[in-house]
Design a protein that fits this description.
The protein has 347 residues and is of the alpha/beta class. The chain has three domains: 11-55, no CATH class; 60-303, TIM Barrel (Alpha-Beta Barrel); 304-347, no CATH class. The protein is built from eight helices and 19 strands. It has helices at residues 101-104, 117-126, 143-155, 170-176, 192-199, 205-216, 235-249, 274-287; strands at 11-12, 16-18, 24-26, 34-35, 46-49, 52-55, 60-61, 63-68, 82-87, 113-114, 131-134, 159-164, 182-186, 220-227, 255-259, 292-295, 305-306, 313-318, 321-325. The strands form five sheets. The protein has an eight-stranded mixed beta sheet. α2 packs across α3 (143-155) and α7 (235-249) runs parallel beside α8. The structure holds iron/sulfur cluster. Iron/sulfur cluster binds at residues 26, 28-29, 31-33, 41-43, 46, 92, 141.
């Protein structure tokens, strides 16, 4: 075997399809790269060595931290619980406003260390975490590692969360979904042009399809749209996202609209104006969504959860902190309305 990485960093890739000419098709993400021998896939994390595809980032950790699940953001799954967040390198998108561009685009030197899936789970347990979030970079890119980690985590009674851009294939999702609890997906735009601008991909229908599949497989789904001025915050796209969530995922699905902080190749833009946030909230209301949240805007009243029936304040949040949680047995204590999601560890 060709040795271009330490042996521990290189495992045979799942979902590969060997082709007659020695190239290999990777079916982990919707790019479905055909990788010639000796070359890497579009994301640079998968190498075709002599007709076999290898993942080069198995266990290669670039970032890890312990945070409340609100940071992802996820608001309707064990609010206030602490999760172990871990990420690797690379991405299958090229978002000009990327918030993690050093690790996602491997821009410059990024130090990494090796962590086995078993050690990852052990660390999460030792730190008293409720679960593990694969986040910071696109988790699909180190799919084999996330699958092994999720399997072990579930066996040990931890919860699991994929923080994803949704470009995973249906077959990859089918493999990992039985070991996942939460699917926190970005829907970045609602037109080919919008997706091209914010992520450098144009085919976004597959993202919607796979998200619907995640929902139908019983995962807890929350959707995030980062509002980038002039790129994805026009009324047509906001209404499109809101209506799709309501119709295909359900009106109870939380939708987080978040303020864009100018970054990377979009540092020249202004942060999201309040008028865009208001239009997104109106789009959510127009589509019948019952839980639309505003993120990255400390003190905004729409960080908190109110009962969709009687309007009572149920969870009062400030940034990632929970100041008050009045939910009792998954319901509003005032009117008994059930709040969608999971609010206790035992179901
Ligand atoms: S995971 Fe990487 S190699 Fe595989 S299809 Fe996606 S971009 Fe291509």
């Amino acid at each position: 075997m060709e040795q271009i990485e330490a042996p521990q960093d290189r495992v045979e890739a799942l979902l590969q399809e060997q082709l007659d000419d020695g190239s290999v098709r990777c079916n982990v993400c919707q790019r479905r790269c055909v990788v010639p021998a000796g070359r890497r896939g579009w994301c640079m994390t998968r190498l075709n060595s002599k007709g076999t595809l290898y993942s080069l980032t198995y266990g290669k950790v670039s970032s890890a931290s312990i945070n409340p699940i609100e940071k992802k953001p996820v608001y309707h799954f064990l609010p206030g619980s602490t999760w172990f967040s871990v990420g690797s390198l690379g991405c299958n998108f090229r978002c000009p406003g990327c918030q993690n561009f050093e690790i996602a685009h491997m821009a410059g030197f990024v130090s990494t260390y090796h962590l086995t899936p078993r050690d990852l789970v052990g660390l999460a347990e030792n730190q008293g975490c409720s679960g593990i979030s694969w986040t910071f970079n696109e988790p699909t890119l180190w799919f084999e590692y996330t699958l092994d980690g999720a399997r072990i985590a579930k066996k040990r009674g931890l919860f699991t969360n994929y923080v994803t851009n949704g470009y995973i294939t249906e077959e990859a999702l089918s493999l990992i979904a039985p070991h996942l609890d939460v699917y926190r997906v970005d829907v970045k735009a609602f037109s080919e042009e919008g997706y091209r601008k914010v992520a450098n991909v144009s085919d976004f229908q597959g993202i919607l399809r796979v998200t619907e599949k995640a929902r139908s497989m019983g995962l807890h789904v929350e959707v995030v749209t980062n509002l980038i001025p002039g790129m994805n915050d026009d009324d047509g796209q906001l209404a499109g996202i809101a209506s799709w969530i309501a119709e295909r995922l359900g009106e109870d699905t939380p939708w987080h609209v978040t303020i864009f902080h100018p970054q990377y190749k979009l540092s020249h833009l202004e942060p999201t104006p309040a008028s865009s946030v208001d239009r997104a909230l109106a789009a959510g209301q127009g589509a019948g969504l019952r839980y639309v949240y505003v993120g990255n805007d400390p003190g905004h009243p729409r960080q908190s959860t109110c009962c969709a029936n009687c309007g009572a304040l149920l969870i009062e949040r400030y940034v990632m902190e929970i100041h008050k949680n009045r939910i009792v047995d998954g319901a509003c204590p005032d009117c008994g309305e059930v709040v969608p999601g999971r609010f206790t560890t035992n179901g």
